[in-house]
Amino acid sequence: MKSIYLFDVDGTLTPAKGNINIEFAKELHNWMNNKQVYIVSGGSFPRIVNQLGREIVDQTRGVFACMGNAFYKKIKDKDGYSSWNLEYENKFSIQKPALFFSELERYVMNSEYHTKTGRHYEERVGMVNFSIVGRNATKKQRKEYEEYDKVHQERKGIVTKLSKKHPTLDFVIGGAVSIDIFNKGNDKSQVIDRFLKDVWQDYRILFVGDRVEYPGNDYSLAKLLDEHENGKTFGVETWQDTQQLLKTKLFASS
Fold it and tell me: What is d(CA 79, CA 180) in angstroms, rounded to the nearest whole number?
């Protein structure tokens, strides 16, 4: 049975918010030859291209950005060059958005974490990305918060509280320092329901991600795949884990 491969980006193909390792990029590019590969990431399309590079992105069949809330499909022109077309995008909707974003800001103010760098939430296509440490944080500051959160489980606590208060929204842990917020159903599992559902009888669908356990932002897709006989999920912690996974028999086949 042929396979379709789905990959997360941060913590799976790259360091969190970082660019792909040069040597791994060469290996991945060669591995992708004649394989059906899709990217499924919480990041925006421009950021994914910046992290992975245009050569790798052009090797994929498509990119599901912003938790699958935007799908970009590759189109080859007559000269053999690739361009990308936005096939669909979802809108994030919530009643009284000003009050909601003020609520997020209160979580920042009330957090006991010592470093807050600003730009604590970012509106993306179909979702919001929220961070206590803030998007202005340096790599060192992000790493420090990541270690803090492993001990204090701050993000998990925030997710639990917000989920109870806003039943029409989903809150999941994304990346190393952030929380992804979106309307119910607009999580990564939608890439199956909206695009790949009809191919399950003929293809094995394999997904690689670093947040496959609840409440991680890969969980919904991982759960859906693992419940199907032709689906399988592989949880990793670093891009090096993915590098080794590609050398296994299951991934070496087409």
Answer: 39
